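In response to the reviewer comment on reproducibility (Comment 2.3), we provide here a single inverse folding case reported in full, input and output, so that an independent group could reproduce the run without further information from us. The structure tokens appear first.
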């Protein structure tokens, strides 16, 4: 598995707001926000349920990662997907940095991945309260 998730029963836009606020509390900013639903409609005229990809970054941890491995930017930021399911529930899916960054042969990067995962797990936990 390369991610972990939770299901919520609340409006999509409220989940987006809560995810962004919870990320901020753990030191993450959202560098990118890709609205897949809007992009599919605009580019290929396809209707799709709400689906957003948030590119989350903790600047201090990203700097440590870049200093440890200059090419690590290829694997950043940590993506968080928020999507509406067929049953109208909302899935919030977090990239698992430990799983993704195990391809990097560096104990320092592995330790950072563990630290980032811990923070993202705290975000997930705060959302399910």
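Designed residues, in position order:
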């Amino acid at each position: 598995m390369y991610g972990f998730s939770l299901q919520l029963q609340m409006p999509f836009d409220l989940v987006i707001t809560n995810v962004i606020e919870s990320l901020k509390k753990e030191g993450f900013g959202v560098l990118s926000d890709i609205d897949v639903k809007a992009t599919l409609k605009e580019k290929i005229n396809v209707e799709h349920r709400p689906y957003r990809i948030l590119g989350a970054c903790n600047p201090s941890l990203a700097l440590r990662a870049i200093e440890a491995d200059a090419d690590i930017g290829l694997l950043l930021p940590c993506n968080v997907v928020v999507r509406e399911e067929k049953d109208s529930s909302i899935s919030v899916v977090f990239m698992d940095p430990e799983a993704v960054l195990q391809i990097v042969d560096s104990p320092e990067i592995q330790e950072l991945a563990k630290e980032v995962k811990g923070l993202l797990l705290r975000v997930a936990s705060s959302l399910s309260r």
